[in-house]
Amino acid sequence: MAANARPVSTRLASSPSQSPAPSAPSLVLLALLPIILSLLFLTFLALQNLLPRSFTLSLPFPFSLLIPQKLGGYSHKTSVESLHHTLTSLSAYRSSQQSSLSAKKRSFRTLGSTGKRYAQALGYQAKLEEITRASATNADLVDGLIGLGKRDFEGGWGWRKGAGGGRPEPGRVIEMLKHFVRDWSTEGVRERSALFTPILSQLEDLYPSMDNFERDNLRILVPGCGLGRLAYEISDLGFDVDANDYSYFIASRLIFKHTESINEHRIFPNIHSFSHHRTAQDMIREVRFPDVLPKPTLLSFQPGDFLELYRQPEVYDAVVTLFFIDTAQDIVGYLETIYRALKPGGYWINEGPLLWAGNPRMECSLDEVLHLARMIGFEQLDLRSVDSDYTGTLDGLFRYIYEAQYWVMIKPKLTLPDSDVVDPPSSSSSSSL
Ligand SMILES: C[S@@+](CC[C@H](N)C(=O)[O-])C[C@H]1O[C@@H](n2cnc3c(N)ncnc32)[C@H](O)[C@@H]1O
């Protein structure tokens, strides 16, 4: 190469001071880039809410967290926290059961020799061993749920055992096992037929002459759906159902996505307490589930906080709440969300107790809840009591019966006259409480 010849690469690598200044149009473009990207993102969000759900896209984690509305996917911060907490609690189940059984066995060993001989005659030690085996069977199912959660939710949305997820609550896992019984086993028929029948026949009465084709134009929301059996039964009548819960979605996925045959799964839901059993066998009774294989229906699961997911007005023809409204930290927010989500002329069907838990802002009596609903704009069509237990043990010596309150309300088609709808008191009249 001649001494004065300059390789092209040298020119490209020359210092910035030597590079030509960017042209004015490209500087403008650069400055506008964040705005253009934001506009594209907003268009994407808007399209997501306009398109039919089958066309919606879901972004991979962690980008999915950026999406504030339902996208036919698992996009919500609350869902992530809930999933992590569920996985943490599931992962504590086996060891917590082992230690509680060890404590029982230690206590038994302190029995005197005469007592032990009687216990032997009763088969008590054998029962303890059976409970130990049953507990291991439960723990195997629970481990399966952890695997499912990690597999189906992109590595459990970043969950790692022992890191985050809050304080493990194995008691919630026991509740989950009982919900499998309530929703998906033949043992749950008593509770389901007491509670589901009024709701399902109400929906059939409200939309009587429709065949399934017409019903699939009617959208029904079931917030706090638990393991989804009621939502499934409603969809099986032909309605288009959105089932929402911020917990339990690993468990419902087991039923809806990972079950191939009736009674494929087995658990021992009664081993967690030695109290109130009629027979020793009742405690170690195996329960199989599911009692049906869900058919394909118009049912979509939407994990997340109901208050955050359903802000869009006038989407649903009916909202069905079962043992749900008393989970509210903010009952006003719950009722307003239900009211707003309903189309004019839409129905709210509720059934459940008023068992306020946690530290809600208001803990209303029945008359207060009904009054509140009327102030928000609902018109009450029906009100009665339905007796039922909730995740009760079949044939147990203890039953906790709720006088669940069943009501139907309508969001009137026309705005009510001012005298019927009460505006919330203005802030100037609020008390110092
Ligand atoms: C008492 S359980 C009832 C479950 C089901 N409806 C049944 O009757 O079996 C209440 C349910 O509401 C859910 N939940 C509570 N607050 C919620 C919220 N803000 N958004 C969505 N789900 C919620 C809980 O995870 C739980 O599954």
TrEMBL record:
Low complexity bias (residue ranges): 12-21
Alphabetized GO MF terms: S-adenosylmethionine-dependent methyltransferase activity
Gene3D superfamilies reported in the protein's UniProt record: Vaccinia Virus protein VP39 (3.40.50.150)
Transmembrane segments: 27-47
Keywords assigned by UniProt, alphabetized: Membrane, Transmembrane, Transmembrane helix
Stretches for region Disordered: 1-21
Organism: Phaffia rhodozyma
Protein name: Putative trehalase
